[in-house]
Amino acid sequence: MAHEHKLEIFRGLVKFKSNTQKIWGVLAFLTLITAVEVVLGIIKPESLTDTYVLGMKSINWIFIILTLVKAYYIAWDFMHLRDEKSSLRRAIVWTPVFLVLYLVFILLVEADYIYEIYKDGFVSWNF
């Protein structure tokens, strides 16, 4: 049974008249987030590169969060998750979010361990 897709984004804050307008609106939103990432990567503000949160620079956390926002929104809009039941949406969206956060945690812990071994251990830097 076919049904009309919702022509709105941001939970109804912005409404469009056609699918073409909606695609352009989503493109503009994703382009804006990407532009923020690129500008932050080029400028690298000292306030974000010198501040550490949970063992990682603040700018890296911003990059991870913005990337997760883009991935979530792509799944939400282009995979039409907004039209599905909430349990399916949660299963599809939250599982990768938790797995990415777990991967980031593991990488941070292991990277810090390797750094400490090379810094204070018997093995010296050979590269």
UniProtKB/TrEMBL annotation:
Q: So which domain of life are we looking at?
A: Bacteria
- Mind telling me which InterPro entries this protein's record contains? Cyt_c_oxidase_su4_prok (IPR005171)
According to Swiss-Prot or TrEMBL, what is its membrane topology? Multi-pass membrane protein
Name the record gives this protein: Cytochrome C oxidase subunit IV
Species for this entry: Maribacter hydrothermalis
Q: Which UniProt keywords apply?
A: Cell membrane, Membrane, Transmembrane, Transmembrane helix
Q: Is Oxidoreductase one of the keywords UniProt gives this record?
A: no
Which Gene Ontology cellular component terms are annotated?
Answer: plasma membrane
Protein localization: Cell membrane
- Stored Pfam families: COX4_pro
Q: Spell out where the chain crosses the membrane.
A: 23-43, 58-79, 91-109
